[in-house]
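User: Fold both of these, please.

Assistant: Here is the first one.
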Amino acid sequence: MTRSRGVVKSYNLHTSSIEDILQVTESDEHVIKGLYKFDRKYVTCTNTGKLCVWNDERDSSTQGEQGSQSLAIDCGCNISCMKEDPSKPSLVSTGGKENCLKLYDLNRPDAGAVFKAKNLANDWLDLRVPIWVTDIGYLPKSSSSLIVTSTGYHQVRVYDPTTKQRRPVIEMEWEELPITSLCVSPYNDRQVFVGNTVGEQALLDLRNRKCLGKFKGGAGAIRSMQCHPTVPVIVSCGLDRYVRIHDLKTRALTQKFYMKSRLNKLLITSDWSDPSEPTSDDIIKEVKEELHSPESEDESDALWDSLDNNTKELVAAKRSKSDADEPISAENAVKKKSKKRKVV
């Protein structure tokens, strides 16, 4: 994980300990926008466009001085995001404000950007279309390596680096607010999840260019969204300090957790709890059934018989007092009146 002043740290889940790995920069103006591990090395990218590969201090098998830079690439200024290709970790994409999508191959650093997107043509007023890439994703099951991006101008675009066309092959708009987070669906290679600055989340169909549905419950800007590869859920977090879990089948909010601080990123472990396991409501219901079972009544009768006479009198007095203090409901009052009339 990355911290302020360009510090990269490692958190051990088993020992709950934090260890410093490397120092990317010491300036507060340089913010780390992307981090991942590739070939026993760490890859970082700052908002100033400095894409670096670092040797792991804890790995003695890496060549070169430990914790030093082994590669540096200039990606341009105002970088907003950096993402690696899950199928080919040597490929990394960057983008930002007035900085088009670029694709780099870390195995060929001298070649520069292997793909550089081109801006759209001028609009109907002959004005230049602004650029602001906010997040990047890779379509997993596509035959070609398609890259999908979200923009700060509520647009979703798909690029094909294998063709000569540098402009997007698919483009669509969603709502009217900046899209801050994007997540590719692991179940359909033509569907993506998006979130904007007011907490709205939706599932978009890139093939038909339409919104398939929204996920309710968000209140702040969505900073990160992740789908579990096997369980049909999507987890999101943002500036409202909540982690929310939505069911992909019903789009209902199943759980949410308050985390006390503004959240920027989340990761999902592959060890997910089995939905068939009993929940807390099921456990409470089971306990109530056990309390009202005949066996529990027999145990209470045996306990009453074991008490002495003085204790039984005290318990009976307390019960009569609690019944007297209990408010009389309308049904009980009607029953008492009917009994009095019958006696008369």
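And the second sequence with its predicted structure:
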Amino acid sequence: MKPVLLYGLDRESLENFIAGLDEKPFRARQILSNIYRRGVLSFAGMTELSVTLREKLAVEASLELPALVEKQVSRDGTEKLLLELSDGERIETVLIPEEGRLTQCVSTQVGCAMGCRFCRTAGGGLVRNLEAGEIVAQIIAAQKYCPELGRVTNVVFMGMGEPLHNYDAVVRAFSIITSDWGISISRRKVTVSTSGLVDAIQKLPHSMLMNLAVSLNATTDEQRSAIMPVNLRWPIAELLKTLATLELPDREHFTIEYVLLGGFNDTLEDAKRLAKLLAPIKCKINLIPYNPHEGSHFKAPSQEDVRKFQEYLLEKNFVAMVRKSRGDDILAACGQLRAERAECPAAPEKES
């Protein structure tokens, strides 16, 4: 039987696992403290546990981290890690250092089934979902492989994959990352992004809605369907109606992500339609100038078009920010992640 990856267990699940080893529940708390407070990476290092329990854990459980295949460092300080999982599949995670904080962009799938035309990850199709433990382990791995950057303070579920297409694992990983017995990063500092899976958005725990980011990227169904096949299932009106009906605390907002594709969705008319669409939504807007990559026919917008687009939204009293591109020289920027698979069969066809 495959050992249980402990990074994927919440406190209750770990207590049940420990009970199955004929041990007391308090041992689970000791193990969690070792993993997330002391940063212990082996059972042998958990010296307050009995030798017998450590021997049991070495057989029945695992603290295996993904192997570091390659680390790339951008001219702006961004670091991209290519990680190999236990089955040989590969993912990428990105670390973005800024003054006073370190943001990590984590992957939730090997590949992606959404097929967004402007995204490099989508080109390989979906291989498999990540387990919750494999998502959490990316953060532990970052601390091991990049200790010079310090502790991760912010997490964005914006790496490879559609987070809400791997709903159960992402919800569990979110809980482990934000709980005081886990990695203990404030919920306000953990953002989950989605291309707009309405059925999953509707059942999200309230704690995850506060920092939900929705990738819109167009202002008409014709336009959005051309670049995001998910729109054929959940068109703009249905997606925005869902957001409008969800209750948020007074000071909380959704984030609407809008990738500006040069000559496609970056005109003043697009900005006007966007303002009209978002008027009923409690939201702030992240404008993301497209990051070109090999094999894509889209181009980056001009700085002038980005400025005009943003200025119009600001005039309409939206909070509209232009996201600064980080790590584009190492293909670590938004939409550029894709872990190449060596000597692996072709990825399956994307789901409809």
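The first strand starts at residue 4 and ends at 5.
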